[in-house]
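SECTION: protein entry
WANTED: fold as tokens:
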Amino acid sequence: MEPFIPQLVFIEPQALEYPLGRELHQKFTDMGIEVRETTSHNQVRGIPGDNELQQYRNAKSTLVVGIRRTLKFDTSKPSAEYAIPLATGCMGHCHYCYLQTTLGSKPYLRTYVNLDEIFAQAQKYIDERKPEITRFEAACTSDIVGLDHLTHSLKKTIEFIGQTELGRLRFVTKFHHVDHLLDAKHNGKTRFRFSVNSRYVIKNFEPATSTFDERLEGARKVANAGYPLGFIVAPIYMHEGWQEGYYELFERLSHALEGVNIKDLSFELIQHRFTKPAKKVIEKRYPKTKLEMDEEKRKYKWGRYGIGKYVYPTDEAQDLEQSIRGYINTFFPTATIEYFT
């Protein structure tokens, strides 16, 4: 698939006080993209569309260039100690995505240009935790790789973390546009992860993302560039024939990585879950989705902020975990499985 290009750009006036803000303003102007001013992302108005669904789809191709005002980082367990805020929103249309509700009525993309302030805050967190390693997750609220060919914010972050002693960076992506990141001075301190899934899940629930084969192409490239490599299998979903579907996933993954020198491979496993608010939003935005969200077939699990989620019943979750762990052990016996949740 082609790299993401926004159809409409909003820029906060304060963003123009930063070099990256001015650079992006000039870049989008030169590309012939309409650039509008907005006092803040909360004041974005005028996204085109005859109805709410059209406006939602157009918002997913709208970019707001602004500054990150809140420099207190969120926690990011179990992936990392902190979420480093580089961008918000995603150009993909994954039906199951938790960003459907966490971004609420603001599904447009946002990129932050005050990187030096963000890096200074990250350094404070690193210093506070000495002599422990401090891990930062860069993809909690966005698919940062899908946007970074335009901003290079992620590349700057990789190189910032690369020169720290105790900082580590992690992010996950469904996009393969990684060429500009291959020469970054990462010094082995950034783990580059790709989201992978069965054919059924990718075909039915992950529109507007790179294909499985494109993601594997990207994985080979970053592994050959010396990045520690990982894969997130998420959401693990019990569709018809899921055992064969996930076995084939790891078989294809194994063939694709033949001949690639991978010293430190990791897997993270996340079962499908949903909340009641997410279900309402998903059914409204993707009315023809095949995504199964029957509360009667699930187990209720309390979550953060008092909002519970529906996960698979214990016996089904154990079946999923044991099966996926078995496939990984078959095809990648030396890999690390970081967690199943």
Observations:
- The chain is about 35% helix and 20% strand.
